[in-house]
Amino acid sequence: MSLENLLEDFALFDNWEDRYKFIIELGAGLEPLSDEEHNEINKVPGCVSQVWLVSEGSSDNIQFRGDSDAHIVKGLVAILLSIFSGKSAHEIMEINAQAIFEKLGLKDHLTPQRSNGFYAMVSKIRADAEAFDECRNP
Prior knowledge:
Layout: H1 3-11, H2 16-28, E1 51-58, E2 61-68, H3 71-84, H4 89-94, H5 97-103, H6 112-136
Antiparallel strand pairs: 1-2
Helix pairs in contact: 2-3, 3-6
């Protein structure tokens, strides 16, 4: 799902209860990670819920997969994957996740802990992108 589609879908809902349900549905649609991928290397520090992000590919096309033990957070993972997956390391570093977070209205409707977790996930995605870029340009 592209960012444009995500914004359009969010705009279809009149209230936040429906948007929360949509976020949970997005998370339910994620491809499950294997037991081996639920490890400390993939675990996102700074999240109250458990979150794992896996990055694959090359610096020109990084794919992300993820999981969480909390339904809403798993939906946030799905949103981040739709924003960042399939982009180059350079493109990932240029994305203003905070602006997107605000545009979706998440800033005003998530608890501070979930907001902090969202930004912790963004930090891990950026760190992984930097690692891919360093491998390409040592």
